[in-house]
C-alpha cells in the first residue's frame, strides 16, 4: 500500500472509530414517587387532634402552631376552655403512616390537661 492511499484512508478510519464509542447510560425518566405532605395544622386541626387524643380535657379555645423550615414536627401553643391565652404547649408529629398529625408525648399532655385531674 502506498503512503498516499494510507494517508487518504486515515480520516475514514478515525471517523469509523468515533462511531464505536459506547452509548451514554440511559437516564431514568420515571416520575418520582409522590411526596405525601401533611396539611399545615391550623386552629381547627389542632383542636380536632387534641380532642380526639385527650377526650377528658377541656376543649381547645385557641391555638397557634408553627413549623420551622425543614422540621418534621410542629410546635403549638394553646388555650383550653374559656381561657383565650396561649398558656399551654404541645408538639405535633406525623403518625407512622405519615398521613396524619398526632400529639407527641400524648400521654403526658393528656394527663396534664385532664379536666378530672386535681392538683394537690
TrEMBL record:
Domain of life: Bacteria
Record's protein name: Lipoprotein
Organism expressing this protein natively: Aurantiacibacter aquimixticola
Amino acid at each position: 500500500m502506498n503512503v498516499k492511499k494510507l494517508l487518504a484512508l486515515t480520516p475514514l478510519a478515525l471517523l469509523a472509530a468515533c462511531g464505536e464509542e459506547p452509548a451514554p447510560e440511559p437516564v431514568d425518566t420515571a416520575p418520582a414517587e409522590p411526596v405525601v405532605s401533611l396539611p399545615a395544622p391550623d386552629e381547627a386541626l389542632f383542636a380536632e387532634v387534641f380532642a380526639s387524643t385527650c377526650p377528658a380535657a377541656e376543649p381547645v379555645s385557641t391555638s397557634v402552631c408553627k413549623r420551622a423550615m425543614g422540621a418534621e414536627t410542629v410546635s403549638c401553643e394553646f388555650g383550653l376552655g374559656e381561657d383565650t391565652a396561649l398558656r399551654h404547649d404541645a408538639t405535633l408529629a406525623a403518625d407512622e403512616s405519615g398521613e396524619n398529625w398526632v400529639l407527641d408525648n400524648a400521654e403526658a399532655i393528656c394527663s396534664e390537661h385532664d379536666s378530672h385531674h386535681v392538683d394537690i
